[in-house]
Amino acid sequence: MTKDAATPVWAHARLALRMIAADPKGLGGILLRSRAGPVRDAFLSLLPPATRRLHPAIEDDQLFGGIDFDATLASGTLVRSRGLAADEGLLILGMAERATPALAARLARLLDTADATAIVALDEGIDDEAPPPTLSDRLAFHIDLNDLPYRGLAQLEPVPATRVAPARLGPEDIEQIAHIAEAFGVTSVRAGCFAMRAAQINAALSGRDRVDSTDIEIAVALVLIPRATRIPQTEEEDQTEPDTPPPDTGDDDADQGNSDQNDRLPDDMLIEAAKALLPPDFLDKLAARHQRSGAGNGSGATKSGNRRGRPLPSRAGRLGGQARLDLIATLRAAAPWQRIRRQSRPDRAGVIIHPNDIHLRRYDEKSDRLLVFVVDASGSAALTRLAEAKGAVELMLAAAYARRDHVALVAFRGETAEVLLPPTRSLARTKRELAGLPGGGATPLALGLKEALSLADMAKKKGMLPTIALLTDGRANIALDGTPGRDQAGADATRMAQQLRVSGADAIVIDMGRRPENQLCELAKVMGGTYLALPMASAKTISTAVTTALDI
Amino acid sequence: MKQPFPFSAIVGQDDMKLAMILTAVDPSIGGVLVFGDRGTGKSTAVRALAALLPPITAVKGCPVNAARPADCPEWAGLESDELHDIPTPVIDLPLGASEDRVTGALDIEKALVSGEKAFQPGLLARANRGYLYIDEVNLLEDHIVDLLLDVAQSGENVVEREGLSIRHPARFVLVGSGNPEEGELRPQLLDRFGISVDVSSPDTVDERVEVLKRRDAFDNDNAAFMVRWRAEDGMIRDQILKARKTLRELTTGDAILRDVAELCIALGSDGLRGELALLKAARAYAAYRDDTALTRTHIRKVAPLALRHRLRRDPLDDAGTGVRVERIVENILA
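Structure tokens for the assembled complex are given below, as produced in the milestone run.
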């Protein structure tokens, strides 16, 4: 299959599709990361014609079936609608990166329990947007078509959908897959199972009744490599391990075993071959993946939902999914029309309600707060300040649940500012990511604020209320463009502070220097925030100060 | 429906399996929380649970699986009092389930079509006398969590809305799973789980190989595989049934109660739920092992399971809470 050297990715994509068609139950589906465009269209045209499409906002009724209200009300007898998931076959989930964890959980249950349903999730995410991991972990193949040019795509005819029985595989194949998974740091056992299954199906599709090393190679490339979390260190350990399996398998398969072993590539060769498949910017992507927040879905918390919070007047709408009927308002809407409706339907008893009478409840909901700590990691006191800031973050998180807070941490030093901790509510994650913190150098205050501003904007898009806490002890001395110079740096910092004010984020400036710095006080004023002088502040005092100052 | 993977065929994850068995022996332990990475067998274990558990006897057609006709709620309007055996219910509570689906609500179809005021039972009714499973429990919306807390504590679901006033028993074992890196669980809910387990991916290649081998056998040699592991499941089931009997006759000395109390004081766990959960879990474990008296061995084994999630979280201490519990258990029971 990899003969088509110009477009191995395309060949793999086709192959994955063929395997899904051959064994939807065992493989779960494909996660296709690709922006909308001709390449993706070409891929979608390969799908068998009878596929159903889902969108991330799909409601339970549509997915799993429920009452068809319009038909029920019109006919006066109960009419049920059939959900999309009722039939077996391929489901396409568009804009999978916008799927909520709730939808992912339902689809995961569907994949876990249904007999022959497979999902092709189309991930159009940019940067750190990704589908919920609950779902992506259950899809065997992860394919990235983003860098594939449309020119020269061959084999555009639909893939044949033939079901096959999986080929046999020996214990040594299983061991090899387990070793490779281990080498690439793939921890999920589910991935290992998928790799095994993919090898078996590939062998069956190629007309073999036994898995050989090409099948394993394909399985590794399609299932394990996209999930890799590290680059294997082959040299030392693999010299000893692959030698062990062959001796005990030799006598099982007698003559067949011999030819098998000749075909068999040792683990380290397979790993080397697989390493070549890792994308060149693998390490950067890996770093980006670590920063990804698991719970985020990018779609934002609804501010006026229909489930909780302060009640708002109800509104006309369609019943279904999460919505709750406001019975009184519905009856009230229907009441004036009863006489007229009765004339047209004399046979109907009781109140005649039409779909457009339905009123739904609405509630007003408070959104979560995001607290962005912007920490000055420059100068001599940087390490203690960072450590105390980290302590404060953890203390705030320990109590965060009650306050519905998310916390993020930005540090700036030298010529850069970086997001050390993307917005999160997880203490476990914070502890891991804040383990080592760099410190020292100049003070690019404006850069730090800029980074904080972009976090705040992102948070606002997700429906959170951002608040910025700046921890520093000195004046800015690096300008936005990275050049030293106090005047320009100060002006830039003020400019960023103005932008922060415009963005509407709450702010607090904590001055940790020995003597209060007038410029910081001014900066706080520009931001429209509070200024606090806290020399030698500790984690506890910072978290108390922030809590009280912001009255969270 | 896909056939679930047999419970006993899950490789390793002994703590998780033990925790689930203990709740089967004594459902009043009050729930299992399984926290860990994806792909570690959490959902597999829960989905296997239904096939493992002994069946229960319930009134035919009863929406809350009542054991006696007298326990059936009036609103169900049952006329027959025929009993039948049903599998222990294991109900999935999906994330994003609406409050109506969970508690039950006015039966809208009946209200709109025939103008009748009727109650449509929700997931809590179906889970009565069984298990309620919430995957990604840490992502569950707050208002559903509040509601579950309330019901889990009182054992009764009270619905007061839309002119309905209905109550029905809702006693279930809450099984929650999730990945702590995606969000923390609210302490109040944490406390309601009797037992908590941390699962991690198998760390040796051998174990992974075993997992893959069993999976392969399950997929491709299903009949033989199921015969073998159904038998194992059957043995566990018999042991659970036997343990339920043993549990009634198990003696608990005062000295051991003292140990339990001392342990909880030393750990500084809030409230008395820790003591009760530890005691119940230890007794269930002793019964499962077919011992006649509760001893320190049992306490030692289950202490981390029952207490680890009740410690005051100290963000500045890096050791895992399980380690802290074990350390203190060693000191107290030395």
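Residues 222-249 of chain B form the longest helix (28 residues). Chain B touches chain A through 57 residues (CB under 8 Å). Further analysis is deferred to the final report.
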